[in-house]
């Protein structure tokens, strides 16, 4: 048993700040108990293409979605609009397969390195971050790879 498993969950991430890599870290379930989900029980999750490091999207996970993702390596999010689990690609076929997952230093944001199949964005673009901003004007920095009507079959 590690020294971290004895800590209250609100102190765990603070204690990890000074942990040496050789320390025996807490198991995953202990860490998940300490994750700082928001008032709705959700955690922001940033999906990044594992090999190019391109940021693809940000979505939300509840604990169930996070546990499923870690167990199956197929990324599962929580849909706030549908109020249910959403397995990326279940309607479009554009899945994300987990390569690695990392919590930030506060335990309140998750970074997922994924293998993305096709576009990540519901607009048919590779990335959801296609609207670039500067101090004067916005512009679209990428075109859709696939027509959204093809992705979703005019649902």
Q: How are the SSEs ordered, and which strands pair?
A:
Blueprint: H1 9-16, H2 28-34, E1 43-49, E2 55-61, H3 63-72, E3 76-79, E4 84-87, E5 96-103, E6 110-116, E7 131-133, E8 138-140, H4 148-152
Parallel strand pairs: 1-6
Antiparallel strand pairs: 1-2, 3-4, 5-6, 7-8
Helix pairs in contact: 1-2
Outline the structure in words.
By secondary structure, the protein is α+β, with helices and mostly antiparallel strands. The chain has 2 domains: 1-34, no CATH class; 35-152, Phosphoribosyl-AMP cyclohydrolase (Ubiquitin-like (UB roll), Roll). Helices cover 19% and strands 28% of the residues. The protein is built from 4 helices and 8 strands; from the N terminus they run ααββαββββββα. The protein has helices at residues 9-16, 28-34, 63-72, 148-152; strands spanning 43-49, 55-61, 76-79, 84-87, 96-103, 110-116, 131-133, 138-140. The strands form 3 sheets. The protein has a 4-stranded mixed beta sheet with strand order 2-1-6-5, with helices on one face. A hairpin with a 4-residue loop joins strand 3 (76-79) and strand 4. The N and C termini lie far apart (51 Å). The mean pLDDT is 90. Catalyzes the hydrolysis of the adenine ring of phosphoribosyl-AMP. Residues 57-130 form the Phosphoribosyl-AMP cyclohydrolase domain. Its EC number is 3.5.4.19. Pathway: Amino-acid biosynthesis; L-histidine biosynthesis; L-histidine from 5-phospho-alpha-D-ribose 1-diphosphate: step 3/9; Amino-acid biosynthesis; L-histidine biosynthesis; L-histidine from 5-phospho-alpha-D-ribose 1-diphosphate: step 2/9. Mg(2+) binds at residues 104, 106, 108.
């Amino acid at each position: 048993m590690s020294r971290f498993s004895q800590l209250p969950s609100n102190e765990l991430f603070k204690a990890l700040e000074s942990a040496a890599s050789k320390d025996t870290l807490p198991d995953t379930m202990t860490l998940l108990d300490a994750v700082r989900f928001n008032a709705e029980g959700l955690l922001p999750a940033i999906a990044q293409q594992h090999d190019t490091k391109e940021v693809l999207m940000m979505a939300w996970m509840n604990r169930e979605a996070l546990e499923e993702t870690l167990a199956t390596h197929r990324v599962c999010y929580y849909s706030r609009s549908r109020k249910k689990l959403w397995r990326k690609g279940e309607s479009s076929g554009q899945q994300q397969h987990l390569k690695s997952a990392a919590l930030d230093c506060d335990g309140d944001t998750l970074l997922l390195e994924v293998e993305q199949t096709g576009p990540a964005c519901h607009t048919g673009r590779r990335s959801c971050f296609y609207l670039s901003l500067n101090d004067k004007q916005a512009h679209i920095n990428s075109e859709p790879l696939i027509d959204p009507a093809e992705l979703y079959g005019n649902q």
